[in-house]
Structures are given as structure tokens and as C-alpha cells.
Amino acid sequence: MLGLFSKQPTHPLADPREAKRVFAEIANREPLVAVEEAGTWLESIPVDAGFKPAQRLELILRLDEAAAPQTRRLAREFPSILGRGRTQEAKHWELNHGYWTSLATAYFDCITRLRAGEKDADAMRPQLQLVYGRLIHALAARLKWKQFQYGPVNQGIWAKLGGIYLDAVAAKLEQKPMQLHPGGGETTIEAEYLKVLVFQASSMDNLKPLQVEIAERFINYFLPYFSLSRELRPDSVYWVDATKPLPPTRLARKPEVSPALRFFSGTRAMDAVLETNKQVRSEGRVPAGINLGTQYDAATAIPVLEHLAMYWAPKPPLRSAARRRISSALKVVNGLSSVHQRLSGKATNGEGVESWVVDDVSLGGLGAHATQSRHDWIRIGTLVGVQPEGGDNWLVGVVRRYVRTGPNDDSIGIETISKSPRAVLADAGGLYTEALLLDVPEVGEYARMALPADALEDKVALLFSVDGKNARLHPRETLATGPDFVVANFFVQSYS
After folding, report:
1. 415, 398 in Cβ contact below 8 A?
2. Is the per-residue pLDDT at 244 higher than 70?
3. Cα torsion at 28, 29, 33, 38 (round to 10°)?
């Protein structure tokens, strides 16, 4: 009978031998399975009332350590599975995002118990610095996985991150050196907080998932060139109020005075990025001292370095053309094949057409938002056909910015690459392929064409008819690539 009222934990991990076995299994299992298992254990620990606070925290810390190498591997691999199938992609994303959510919740639970003065909770204080650092790290990882799908991001994360940082400041722990995970480099709580701020300030909504992963690695490398300051300095570029649910913001004007204000600048980091970019270009490889998790060629790394330099500069990137605010309907079709069918008149009325709303237009493109349940096809670099309200012609564009601003609301930036595209059926050495002619051909000049990603071949001319004329074009350099297309320059040999 006495056993019925015992407060001894009945959780399987309360047995040290079983816990040791579970941790070893997680560390050595296939990564996706390991992370799923770790997340399940993390969800179960806070709700078991039998654990003492220090015992509960110790289990969370060990689970975190066991899963850490697996989570790093999955973050590297995620961009490579995009396009293999929505089911696989969704499972991969949900398990990883869910894991980081569970880990952050478990650490928050420990801090809440300590703040509430729960019995025996003071036994966790010696680990408080590590808990703060790992909690910021978990929230940062969750933010990155949100960015892989372009949001939406709950703005409350900034108040949570700021609150943890300010707690560390109050405890005089924010600049104390620490090792976040076994085998990792030295860091501080302030450095982990600053890393998240720099990640947000780097405008990741303009990058593809692989570029987001590489950018985060570069941020970690260039972080020593940043510093967080209480005072507004002449070189300050960004500010954040750690008490408010607001992301870091450029200093267009001085913010309201607050003890929680912090400032930082990317000017020194920008200079270091530019020097690294020169080195990568001259040597054709990323310097050995920069750990990107795996080897990437120079062509993959350079656009990311250029992007970071642009957004870490003292002055924000200037728009190439002035934007005009409007609000009008927009018809949208997705992918080269759908655009080709629409331009060639083969598509039935309304088939595959979505309705968006234009927010602004410029000579180079437009901004729009969509209010449908899901847009899983939208990626940075996706080719689209758009037809503004009142127009009878279709334009061809590429998605350059994408933010999920809510569960049913997306903000999309589209670069226009052709205002008078033509659908053609091109003969490429006896193989026929659907292609888009983006420019009017002129003999002796160059014209751009968009083709299926696997249809472009060196030295194989394209022959096609358009407007009653026969054209022969020879491929030159590739200008852009996307999930299902390639845009290349072609030399116009004949057009008559």
C-alpha cells in the first residue's frame, strides 16, 4: 500500500542504467529516428512529477548532448531532400522543428521551476549558465528551421530570447566563457544571443534553404567581428530592445531609451567577408579554417558571402528601381511547364491559376501576397508566370523573396525576367523540348531562353519557329537555375 503513495519517479529514465542505454542508442541511431526518439523523451520528462529538479535537468542535458551531432547532420542534409517528395520533406521538417521546440520547452520548464522557488530547485543553479546558453541555442535552431520554410515566426521569440539574455546579465553570466556541448568551441551566452540577432539581421528570406544553412555557418565564423554594446556608437547599425517582442532593427532613427537596449554593427564583419570572398575567388575554394559542416565549392559559397556583405553594410541595400504601392489582383501559374502551356494556349481556362494580390510594383518586379492555406511549391528561385489585373499578356518572373507571414498568408517578391515571353517548341539535335523565349531575337545578338533543367546541352543549337520565322540559336553561358528550369544566353545565328 505504501508504494501507491511513493513519490519515487516511475519514468524509465529514472533508472541510471536504462538512461545510459537510451543516450547511447540515440547517439548511434540513424539521425531522423534518433531525433524523433529524443524529442519523445524530452516531452515526457517535464510532466513526470517524480523527478527532483536537478535530476530532471540532468536528463534533459544528457538527451541534448546525445542528439546534438544528429541534429547538425540533419540540418546539413535537409536542403538536399527538397524536391524529393512533400511527404519526406514534411516529415523531416516536422521532426526537427518539433525536437527543438520540445528541447526549448524542457529547458524553460527548469527555469520556471527555479524562478517559482520550487523545492530543491536551487540544486540546478550550478548549471544555470549552461541552461541559458543551450536554451538560446535551441530557440535559435528552431528559428532556423522556421526559416527553412520561410516562417511564419512568432514575434514573441524575441522577448523570450531577450529575457534569457537579461537573466544571464543579472546573474553576471553573460560573458563568462563556456562550452555549449562536449567537443565544441568556446562561447558565451552573449555570443549565442548575438548570433541569433545577426542571423535575423541577415535577411534570410532572400536565400534558398542550402544558402541559409551555409550563411549560419559563416555567421558563426565571422561572429568575433561583431560586438553587443549598451551604448549607441558611431558605427552602430542595428538595435534591439531585449524586453520587447521585436526583431533587431536598422538604426533609421534612435530608438526609445531603455536599459534593455543593445546595439551592434556588422561593418568590421563586412570587411572580413569581402576579404574572404576575394580569397575564395582567387583560390577557387573555401579556406580550410572555415567550418561549413561539409565541403562546398566556390560557386556555392560566393553568393552567400556577397549576400552577407550586402546586409552587414552600414547602409541598407538600395532598390534598383523605385516601388509604387498599389493593390490589384494578380493571376499566377507555377513552373516552366505551366507557363509554357499558358503562353501556348494549351491550358484550359483557369487550370492551375492562383489569385494573389499585388502590393507594389517597380520596373524590375513586384511584391504580392497570397491568402491560401498552403503554397508548398513556392521556393526562392521558382519560375512563375504572372498576369496583372486588366492585362492580357503574361510576364515571366522568378521568386526572389518569400516570407510566410501567417498560417494562411504569404508575402512574395518576384523579379520580372521577361515582359514579352514566347512559348516555343525547340528542336535540340532531334529532341524536342518546351522552352520560353525571353527576348526578341536579333541576328548577331544574344537572346535569353528558359528551358527544362536537363534540356540545355553545350554545342547543341536550338531550332524553332516563332511569328512565322525560323530561328537557330547556339547556347552560351548559363545565367540562372531553378528547381525545374535553367535560363541561358543564346547567340542568334539566324532568324528569318
Report:
1. yes
2. yes
3. -30
